[in-house]
Design goal:
Largest sheet: 2 strands, antiparallel
Structural class: mainly alpha
Strand content: 5-15%
Distance between the termini: 69 Å
Order of helices and strands: HHEEH
Length: 102
């Protein structure tokens, strides 16, 4: 496809850009749909659904919790990363990290 861009007006060029952008979105949507169908077929051969594969955890464990909130033991922290708010509040109230150890 050869288009003489030099002969097009500014308006024609803008319209061409908009039309091409819409066409790209359509092509992308169609390719995503085709990819999804191919992926569903592939995982089905292994006895899974695509949803099962996509929701499966692929990361390693975050680590065993080392600390728990005394007021709500379901809230835990591994001791790595940012301190949860309940740890910050406990430290502000005078407790030590050792007081929160499991």
């Amino acid at each position: 496809m050869n288009i003489d861009l030099e002969s097009l007006s500014r308006e024609d060029l803008s319209k061409l850009i908009n039309d091409a952008t819409k066409a790209l979105k359509t092509v992308d949507a169609r390719r995503r749909a085709e990819a999804k169908i191919a992926a569903e077929k592939a995982v089905k051969e292994f006895g899974y659904s695509l949803d099962e594969i996509l929701t499966a955890t692929t990361k390693g464990s975050k680590g065993a919790p080392k600390y728990a909130n005394p007021e709500d033991p379901t809230q835990t922290w591994t001791g790595r990363g940012r301190k949860p708010n309940w740890v910050v509040e406990a430290l502000k109230s005078g407790k030590s990290v050792d007081d929160l150890a499991i």
